[in-house]
Specification:
Blueprint: H1 2-5, E1 24-25, H2 37-45, H3 48-52, H4 60-69, E2 77-80, H5 82-94, E3 101-102, H6 110-117, E4 122-123, E5 145-148, H7 160-169, E6 175-178, E7 200-205, E8 218-222, H8 224-235, H9 244-255, H10 257-280, E9 292-295, H11 302-311, E10 314-315, E11 328-331, H12 335-350
Parallel strand pairs: 1-10, 3-4, 5-6, 6-7
Antiparallel strand pairs: 2-8, 7-8, 9-11
Helix pairs in contact: 2-9, 4-9, 5-6, 5-8
The structure holds pyridoxal-5'-phosphate.
Pyridoxal-5'-phosphate is lined by residues 29, 82-84, 108, 148, 152, 178, 180, 205, 207, 213, 218.
Protein name: Histidinol-phosphate aminotransferase
Domain Aminotransferase class I/classII large: 22-345
Family: Belongs to the class-II pyridoxal-phosphate-dependent aminotransferase family. Histidinol-phosphate aminotransferase subfamily.
Length: 351
């Protein structure tokens, strides 16, 4: 009894399955293409000294490279171990007013987990009938806001007009825009707003558009003051967050803009084709701006489709949760993988 009472009890985030056997893996939004060739070469040329010694706690090389790519100052960039690390650190740093933090009822389920972990109160306004957010819901008194844009798992993008309205209404709290999927949107990033709104923090990741989920790199761009506060918390927690390997491979990946453009355009093209094919099979879905489709079939149960695909070694994501249990979230893979998916679905829908 004594022991139990002293524990920080939490309900953890449940990550998508990472099967060992070879399957068609469309369940955790990884990129089907390999990382940039330069990043791969880096691995082979790794200087043993770099592994023997502690890495650069300031992550200077990658921070400067990102600053130049996104046309901001290095003082406006914070790098972490995947955006999950950056976001966890941001909850700890920015959401301390005791007032509820706001995020939509249907969004990245980790937000709720961090709020619970850090004992941050939160309120979750419902998405509207079209699965978009209502800006008015984010304009009352609150302790901060976090929005994924494009949102997950819906894939829907909110215009910068909506984001700006929310920023203007909330000058006294931090508004985080989680842009894990922005590179697939073909629409403007909120990074363009950081010089105008000192309360804006934008996060992005190398896990999706840069094919490096296994390397764990994420970053935030914002006002210098916000970045300084984040760094203070980081150095109070763990100074050496990124490994020497991650710093080098990450930098090489950002330097190869051509490869990045080529692979993201390929995924966007496959996504648009997937929309046509899935619609032809009778599926309904919000118009995704991300590297996944959030789809339901009016005649078939989500769980049934999920299991039937799984039996055919095709893994997608399904949540047994009200409002979204009819849906499957399907990552956009290669053309070939998607072809196998359509064939499997055709067969399942016929039987
Ligand atoms: C994938 C994802 C993340 C986390 O990505 P990392 O792999 O930790 O960089 C954050 N937010 C959303 C909405 C995501 O889908």
């Amino acid at each position: 009894m004594g022991l139990e009472a002293n524990i920080r009890h939490v309900t953890p985030y449940v990550p998508g399955e990472q099967p060992r056997q070879k399957v068609i893996k469309l369940n955790t939004n990884e990129n089907p293409y390999p990382p940039a060739p330069g990043a791969m070469e880096m691995l082979h040329q790794m200087d043993p000294e770099k592994l023997r010694m502690y890495p650069d706690p300031e992550i200077k090389m990658l921070t400067e490279c990102l600053a130049s790519r996104y046309q901001v100052r290095p003082e406006q960039v914070f790098v972490g171990v995947g955006s999950d690390d950056v976001l966890a650190m941001s909850f700890l740093t920015f959401f301390n007013s005791g007032k509820p933090v706001l995020f939509p009822d249907i969004t990245y389920s980790f937000y709720k987990v961090w709020a619970e972990l850090y004992r941050v109160p939160y309120t979750c306004p419902s998405l509207d009938g079209t699965m978009h957010i209502r800006a008015e819901d984010y304009c009352g008194e609150n302790g901060g806001i976090i929005l994924a844009n494009p949102n997950a798992p819906t894939g829907l993008y909110e215009s910068l007009d909506v984001i700006e309205k929310i920023l203007k209404e909330n000058p006294g709290v931090v508004v985080i825009v989680d842009e894990a999927y922005i590179d697939f949107a073909g629409k403007p990033s909120a990074v363009s707003l950081v010089d105008r709104y000192e309360n804006l923090l934008v996060t992005q990741t190398f896990s999706k558009s840069r094919s490096m989920a296994g390397v764990r790199i994420g970053f935030a761009i914002g006002n210098e003051r916000l970045i300084r506060w984040l760094l203070d918390v980081k150095y109070s927690f763990n100074s050496y967050t990124l490994s020497a390997l991650a710093i080098l491979c990450g930098t090489k990946a950002v330097e190869d803009e051509t490869y990045f453009q080529k692979t993201t355009s390929q995924i966007i093209a496959t996504r648009e084709r997937t929309k046509r094919r899935m619609a032809a099979l009778g599926f309904e879905f919000p118009d995704s701006s991300a590297n996944f489709l959030f789809a339901r079939h009016p005649k078939y149960d989500g769980e049934v489709l999920f299991q039937a695909l799984r039996q055919r070694q095709i893994y997608v994501r399904h949540w047994n949760q009200s409002k979204i249990r009819e849906y499957l979230r399907i990552t956009i893979g290669t053309e070939e993988e998607m072809e196998t998916l359509y064939e499997a679905l055709e067969e399942i829908l016929k039987s």
